[in-house]
Automatic annotation (TrEMBL):
Residues 134-221 form the Thg1 C-terminal domain. Its EC number is 2.7.7.79. Coiled coil: none annotated. This is tRNA(His) guanylyltransferase. PANTHER family: TRNA(HIS) GUANYLYLTRANSFERASE-RELATED. It comes from Hymenobacter fodinae.
Length: 255
């Protein structure tokens, strides 16, 4: 059998189940760390429940992903997860989802591992969202999840540091209402409302415009030019303001 014939016959098995996102759908990739609880609490001595070193590793990984060949207009991270919002017109690889998931998971795992100096692995999935409102709701969902996780994590690790076992701390936190969790922390000198916003809301990465000073040799004068750069936002807004922020990002890229 000639190679061209063999290649055509065998390539069917690779591509028969290719799924491509339809044009017009918004795409959001979500990456999750595999076994990161053990990695960050047992293998490496990161501070619990939150550590600025881990925060910075995740932020740098997000910046890397936003420049690895896809048109990503917003990156968001909380805990060990990353969400990436693609430009509405993104069409790389014919919008083949297996390409997106495999490349992003590989890039994230490689970058994080290099930064950490040890192996850290991510998986990846793609949400295909038909409406702008779905995009807004997606990021509102992940941010609300961040707040819930932060409250639970602070309560859990406070109890652990007080001598409770894993089972005792888990059971006690699970049985408390939100207000009771706040009270538990407040009784021990922790006001959850005063904790850093990035712990409760996650952080975002997006492009911002700025003026850069230069020199025009022809006119022999200083000039200002508009440039773009990645901004890591540790103080994201909340609720309706956050929804407006996401809509503004989409509107800017549609112009």
């Amino acid at each position: 059998m000639k190679f061209d014939d063999l290649d055509a016959r065998m390539r069917v098995f690779e591509t028969a189940h290719d799924h491509c996102a339809l044009p017009g759908l918004y795409l959001v990739a979500r990456l999750d760390g595999r076994g990161f609880t053990r990695l960050t609490k047992e293998v490496h001595a990161f501070e619990a429940p939150f550590d600025e070193r881990m925060r910075d590793l995740m932020a740098q990984t997000v910046v890397h992903l936003m420049g690895c060949g896809f048109r990503v207009i917003y990156g968001y991270t909380q805990s060990d997860e990353i969400s990436l919002l693609f430009h509405p017109a993104e069409g790389t690889y014919g919008r083949k989802l297996r390409k997106y998931t495999s490349i992003l998971a590989g890039e994230a795992s490689a970058q994080f591992s290099v930064l950490l100096g040890a192996i850290g692995v991510f998986d990846c999935r793609i949400s295909q969202l038909p409406r702008e409102q779905d995009v807004v709701d997606y990021f509102r969902w992940r941010q609300e999840d961040a707040g819930r996780n932060a409250l639970n994590a602070h309560c859990y690790w406070h109890l652990r540091k007080q001598g409770h076992t894993v089972a005792q701390a888990t059971g006690q936190v699970r049985g408390l209402r939100t207000s009771a969790k706040h009270d538990l922390l407040f009784e021990h000198g922790i006001n959850f409302n005063n904790l850093p916003l990035w712990q409760k809301r996650g952080l975002g990465v997006y492009q911002e415009s700025y003026e850069k000073e230069g020199f025009d040799p022809k006119r022999q004068q200083t000039i200002l030019t508009q440039r773009r750069r990645w901004k890591t936002d540790y103080d994201l807004s909340l609720g309706a303001d956050y929804e407006s922020f996401i809509r503004q990002l989409l509107a800017q890229e549609s112009e």
